[in-house]
Protein 1
Amino acid sequence: MLNRLLALRQSLRGLDLSGFLIPHADEHQCEYPPARARRLAWLTGFSGSAGLCAVTLDRGAIYVDGRYTLQVRHQVDVKNFEPLSLHDDKLADWLLAHLEKGGRVGYDPMLHTREWIEKLSGALAAGGIELLPVAGNPIDDLWRDRPEPSKNPVSSHALEFSGERSKHKRDRLWAELKADNLNAAVLTNLDSIAWLLNIRGGDVEHSPLVLAYLIVKSAGKAVFFVDEDKISDEVRDHLGRNVKIKPYAEFMSALKTLGRGGRRILVNPRHTPAAVTDALCRGGAFLVEKPDPCQLMKACKNETELSGARAAHIRDGVAMCKFLCWFDDNVSAGKIDELTATEKLYGFRKKQNYFRGLSFDTISGAGPNGAIVHYRSSPETNRKITGDMLYLLDSGAQYLDGTTDLTRTLAIGKPSEEQRDRYTRVLKGHIALAQARFPVGRTGAHLDTLARKSLWDVGLDYDHGTGHGVGSYLGVHEGPQSISKTGFEVALKPGMILSNEPGYYKSNEYGIRIENLMIVRPSHFEDEERPMNIFETITFVPLNVRLVNAHMMSSAEITWLNIYHAQVREKISPYLAGRELEWLVQATQSITVL
C-alpha cells in the first residue's frame, strides 16, 4: 500500500496539487461500489461500506463511521492514514491544520455531490485553501490491474414479483414532477432506476443493480443510458418504445442540452455527482434540488412485494434453521471455524427457490471478531468456533421475491453472567421496538431510544443505527427510512421494511446483535384516538435462549419471546423433518420464570 500512496503523491505533484480526496463512492454513490470503483480500498486496504480518505504530500487521514472504528485499525496502516470519525471529526479542520495557505486540494467531481463540495469548499476558502475538480481520477492511471466494467446482462423483473408495471410507475413519477412544475428528472441512483424500469442486473456485488443513468422527460417516457451490449431483445420489449436506450457514455453530453432555455430539472442533491449538476448548469438548466421521488415510492412496498418478502423470509428461515441444527450438532467437536460456517450456511441457502445470491458478505465473528461491527472473515483472521465464547452471525440473501437480513448471537460453551446480562438487555431493546405502537407521522428517530433504554440503564450503548430500510430484491440497505438518532427526515409509512438490530460490543472480547426485519403496518386498535402504526416481524429464526436471563425480563417480554418462538415453529416446521424438526421444536420451547 505504501508504494501506491507514494505513486499517488507523485501524481499530485505533477498536477500541482497539495492534496486529494478519495471517497468510498462511485459515480452513482453506491454503498457497495463495483470492483473497478473501489479506489479507497485499493489505496488504503479499507473494505468497509462508508469511508473517505484525504491525502496530502506528507500526511493521510481516513474517516469512517462507528461501525468501522475497530475494522479500520485492522485493515489500514495507521502510520500513513490517521483513523478519524466521519461524524465527529471535520475533514476541513484536518486539511486546514496540515496544509499551508494557498494549498490546492483536488477531487473527482463524479464521486462527490455538489452539496458536499460547496460546504467543504466554503470551509477551506476561509483558510486560503482551494478545492479543485480534477478531470480524470489520478488513481485510475496508477491502478494497472483495475477490473474491467461488468458485462452482466440486464433482466426484466416480472410483474409477479414487482406488483406494478413500469409504465404505471413512470406515470406516477411524472405526476409528481408535473405538480412541481418540473420539465425533467435526472436519476443517478441505481436502485431508483432498477425499481422504476422493473429491471435487475449484476453490476454491483450482492445487489441486482445495473450501471446506468435515466432521464425522465415526460409522461411515461424516459432515456435510459446503459451499456447496450447488456440489453437483450426481451428487455427491449419489456421497456417498450417509450424508454429510449442510449450508450452509457453519452449521458454527460446529453446533459448539455437537457436544460436549454432554463428548463426546470430535478436532481437529488445528496446523491447526484457534482459533475452532473455542473453540466446541467452550464447547459442553462434551472436546478430543482429535492429528494429523488422514487426512493420514497420504492420504500413503500405494494402488497405483491410484501407477500414476496414474507415468503422469502420463510424460505430463508428454513435455510437458517437447517444451518443452526447442523451447527449445534457439530460445534462441540471443535472443527467449525468462521469460514466453514459461512460456506455451510451458503450451501443451505442456495438450495432455496428463487435464490439469487447473498445480500451482503456474511459477518461470521467468533469471540473478539464479533465485536467488529462489520467484520469480514478472511484466512488471516479466521477463528475456530470453540471453547467458551460468543459467535455472531449476520447474514442475508437475495431472492427474486425479496431481500433478507438477520443476525443471531450464539453461545458456545458456557456463557458468562456478563454476557447473559448484555444479551438480555439487547433482547429487551429488540422486543421494545418490535412491540412499538406509534402515531402516524413519527420517524425512526422517535423510536430509536426504545431499543437502547435497557443498555442506557447501566451506562452502555452501541455506535450504529438501530434499523435500516430493506429493498424488494434490491439493496439490503435502502433509504430514505431508518431507525436511528439522525433519522428525523422521513416518517415511517405502511409498507416500509426495516431492520430491528440493537447490539452491544465489548472490544477484543465479544459482540452481540439480534436482528429481525419488520414491516410497518397501520394499527387498528379500537380505542385509538389518533391513527397509529405498528410493526409486523417477518423473520422467523429461533433466538438463542441459553443467553437469556429470564429474571431480567418482564412477563410481557417473556410472553413476546414465547409467542415469537411459537410462530417460528408454526411457520418453519412444515419444511423440516427428522433431526432438523426435532432441533426446531427444542429451540422454540417456551421459557418460564420459577
Protein 2
Amino acid sequence: MKKKDLLKIIDNDLLDKLFGFCYVRTRDSTEAEELCSDITYALVKAANTQGEIENPYPFIWRVARNVYADFSDKKRLKSDRQYEGDPEDVLPFIADRDVESPFYEVEEEDRELLAGVYRRIAFLTSSYREVMIMYYLDGLSTSEIAFLKGTTEGNIRQRLFSARKKLRNEVETMTANNKPVAFDKINYCIIGTGNPLLGDPRNGFERQFSKQVVRLCRKKPSTAKEIAEELNVPTMYVEEELEILTRGADGKYGLLRRLDSGKYGVNFVLLDREQINQAEAVYIDQIPEISRVIIDFIERNRDEYLAFPYLNKKKDLNLILWQQIMSIAWAFEDNVHRILREKYFGEEKTPERPFTVYGHEDNEVYYGCGCDGIEARNICGYKGVFFSNIYIKRIRKHFSCGHDIGNDIPLQLALLAINGLDITEMSEYDKEQAAKAVECGYLYSEGNMVYTKILISDSKDNDHFFDISRRLEKGYFEEKAEEAAEKIAKLTKKVLPSYLMDEWDKVNSLAGIPLLDLVAEELINKGIITAPKDGIGAEGCWGIVSK
C-alpha cells in the first residue's frame, strides 16, 4: 500500500492499542498521552511522504518503537540536565567561594561556571519553576495552582516560599502580598492556514507570560535581559520562554525568531490594536460599494447559478448563494491581493511551510469567519464523500475538522436521501435520526418522503464549483481595489519588519476579516439571501460525492 493510505487505518482502535503500548512504558497517563501523540505525529508525517509499504502494521509498530527510543533518550537527557528533587538537597553542596576545598582547586572562571551550573539546577527544578510562573506571571491563586497540580494549597505555599528564598538576589521584592509583576491581560486572535498537524506554533501559547514576551518582541527585537528588565521577571524564566517560543511545535517554526543581532523578534505577522483597526477600516469603508456590485452580479447570473448540476431534487437559490458566499464576499479582497502582488510586492517570494499563522491583538470587535471540511471513503454507497460548512455570526457550525462521518447518522441520511427515502419503511430509530436531520437542516419532508436539503454535487463537476462567483475576481472592482491596495501596501511597509515582508499578503488577509460577515448582512438586509432560524440550517453546508 502507499504511505498516504496510512491515514485510513489510524482509527480509534489503533490509537487505543498505541496508547496501551505507551502506558506500560511510561510513568503515568499524561506521559503516555505525550508519547502516543509523538507516535501519531510521526505516522502522519510518514503518510505525507512518497513511497509504499508492504505491510502497514509492522511499519506502524516499527515507527512506534523508534519514537519511543527517541522519547527515552530525550527523557534521559532531561534527567541529566534537570534535578527534580528538593533544591535544599543540592544547595549545601555548593561551597562558598571563599572556602578552601578540593572542589575549588580550579581556575576562577571554571569555578564560577561550575557553581552557576549547580545553582541553575536548583533554581530550575520543574515543580518550583512552574509554580513560580503560574503564581507570579499567570496570576493564578495558590488554590487554583493546587487544583491544577493535584496537590494541597499548603504544598504550593511551601514551594513558593522556598523558591522566593532562593531567588531573592534577583527578585528581592517577590513576596506573597507584593507581586513584582502585574501584567495587563492581553489576548490575541491568531489565524492558522495549512495543516496544523505539521507544526502549529500556537500550541502552548495560552499563558499570559508567553503573550507578554511576544508583544515585547513585536514592538522591538529584544534580548532576554531586556525582556526580563521590562517585565521584572527572573532572566532564567525569560530564557526558557524564548527557547520554547523560538523552537515551536516542530522545532522549525516558532512565534519568535533569533535575529542575526542575537535579539529576538516576532516571527509572524502580528498587528496591534491600532494597526488592525486601521487595516480593517480600508475594507469596511468599501462595504456599500462592494455589496452594490455583488447584488447586481447575482441578479444578472441568477439563471446560471440555478443551472449548476446539483444532485438534489430541488434547487434553492438561497442555499446556492450561501454556499458561494465566501467566494462572493472575498472577491474584492482577491482583487486587492492581485494588485498588491503585481504593483507592490512582486519581488517577494512566499515562504514554503506546511502551516503558517498570522493575527492581531484583540480589538474587541468580532467577526465570524470559519470553514471546515471533512471526508470519508466507501460510505453509503459512495467511493468518497466530502462535506464542508461555514460559520459566521449568522450561521452556527454543523461540524469541525476531524469530525467522523461514520458516526454521524443524520449526515449519512443526507447521503442516502438524495433520491428520497420513504419514512414508512424506516425503523423507529431511523425515524428519530431522520427527525434530527430535518431539525438541523440536512433533510426536508414531503409527504411520506424525506429528501436531502443541503446541496450535493458530483465530484466530476468540482472543478467548476465556483466558476461563476470567481468572475468577480477581475474586472468588477478595479478602481476601488486600486485605492484599497495602495492603502494596504503603505500600511504593510510601515508595520512589518523587513525580514517578514515576504508575508505581506497576511496583512491584506487580516484587513479583509470583516468582509464575510458584513457583506452577508448587506445581502440579508437587501433581501437577496435569508439567514437560518437560530443560526442552524442547510445554509452554508454542502457535500460532494464520488460515485
Protein 3
Amino acid sequence: MSGKEIWKFIPLIIIFSCQQPNEPFERENKPPQTSLWADSIAQVVTSTIKLHWWGDDPDGFVKGYFLTTDNLNWVWTTSNESTLTLKLGNKSIDTSNIKVTAVDDEGNGIWDQKVQFGNYSYGCEPFDDLNKDGKYSTGEPFTDLGLGDQTPANIKLVVKNSPPSVAFNVSSTIPSITLPVATFTFTGIDPDGSSTIQNYFISLNDTASSSWRPIPSNTNIITMVADLSDTSKNIVIAKILIGSTLQDIGITIPNFKLNNFNRLYLYCQDGTGAKSKITTMPDSSKTWFVKKPVGRKKLLLVDEFGISSPDPDLVYKEILSSTVDKTGKSFGDYDAIDLSTNQIPKSIARYMLLETLKLYKIIFWYGKVINYDLAQQVIPQFIDKGGSAILSTGFQNLSLSGTDPSLLALDFAPFDSLITSYNKDSISVSGFIPRVYSQSRILANDSVSQNKFPQLIYDRTALFGTYAIQQGLSDKVLYRLDSAKATNPSNTEEKWIGRPAVIVQSQNKKIVFATIPLHLCNSNEVGTNIPQLKLFFEKIFSGEFGE
C-alpha cells in the first residue's frame, strides 16, 4: 500500500474514534429567530395595518408565533400575516410597539401553565377548553411548545386616527310621500374598526347644535313616530324607536313638519371625537313630504289596487263620506297609503307600516292581489294592539300543485284553505272564479236575523280572478257567492258550483277577509237609494268592530 493510500484512511479513523459504540448522539436545541415586516413604511400610519412575520429555526421547525400590540396581551397564532386594528383609546395620535415571537416545535410533552422566553411571559400553553370552565383539564388537547425567540422582533409605529363615515342605505330610500312615521337604515364605517364608532347623531330639518340627538352605535335602524296629541300643531316632536324590535329608548327629536317637506341629517363620531361628514335622507335630488292625518285617526285605507275602472279610490271616497260611526260622525275623515304607486322599500316596510297602522283604530286594505307577506308581518301585531281590519283581495297566479308561499303568509287570515275544486255528479269543477256577472248576488249568511248584514249585488260584470275559501273551524262565514249563472252549456266563464264562502270573519271579530272586490258591490238597497256598501261598512265598523 502506498503512502498516499494510507493517508486516505486516517481522517476516518479519527472521526470514528471520537464516538463509542451504541452511545446516542446529542445536539442542543436552539431557539428560532423572528422577523417582522409591515406593508406601510410610513412614519405615521392609520390604525389599520397589515403585518407579515416569519421565523427561522436553525435545528428544526417553527410551531407558531406569539404576537402583541400593547406589550401586555400576547395572542398565539400559526398564521404568518394579519391585518391589525391598533387601539388609540381616546387619542387622535398614539404609538404602538408590535412584537412577534417565533416558537419551535420541540416541546416537553406536557401542558405548561407558564411559558416564558427570556424576559417575556406569554401565559400558559394554548389548549382547547372542551368543558368551557376557563382552565386546563387533564385530557384536553393543547399545543406543546418548544423554545421561543428570547428577543422578539418588533416594530414601533406612530398611529393616527382616521375619521369615520356614515351613509343611508340606498335600498331603504324614504318614499316621497308618507304619513308622520318614517324608518331609516344606515351603515357606519370606521377605518379604525366599526367598534370605535361611539354614537350616531340625527336631526330633522335643522343642523343647529341643539337639534341633534344621539343614537346608540349598536343599531342601524331607526323609526320616527310623530306626537299627534295636539292636532293644532304642524311642527311636532317625534319619538325614536330603534332596531328591528322598535325599542323606545326615551329619546325624542324636534322639528317634525306636518303637511310639509322634511329632511333627516345624520353623522357619526368615534372614540377619539372625530366626526364623519353629514349625510341626508333624502338627498338633494329628492323630496319627502309628510301628510298630517285628516281627523280622528279612526280609519286608514291601504291601497294596492293600482289603476282600475271603476277607480276603487273614488268609490270608497263617496261611500265612506256617508258612512257614520255609532256617534253619527262620518268616516270620510280617513287617511290613505297608496302602496301601488308609492311603495315602501322592503327593508323598512315592516317597521314603518306597523307603526303607521298603530295610529288608527281600523284599517281597510284592498287590492287585486295584496302583499300577503307584508300583511302577515304587520296585521297580527296591529290586532294585538287593539286594532281591527278589513281586507279585500284576490288570489291570482297561485301555484296550486303545492303549498304556495302566498298562502303561507296568511296565517292571520280567518280561513283554513282555498277551495280549488268542487265535485258534482263525479265531475270535478274548478273553484277558480275568473268572472262574476252584473247583478250576481253575494248572500248574507244571517240576512234573516234582526241585526242582519245587507245583501250585496255586483253592479257590473266583474273580471278579477280569485278562489273561494274554506273557513276555519272557529271562523264565521258572513257572505256566500250565489250560484253561478250558466251562460253556456260548458259553463266556462263562471267556474264554481254551490254557494262558496267569499267573506269570512275571525272568531274574535277583529278581522274580516273578503275574496271579492267590494267596490264593485255598490248597488242601492232594494227599494231605497242607500248604497248597499255604505250599510255593509256601517255594519262592520260599528256593529262588529264597535266604533
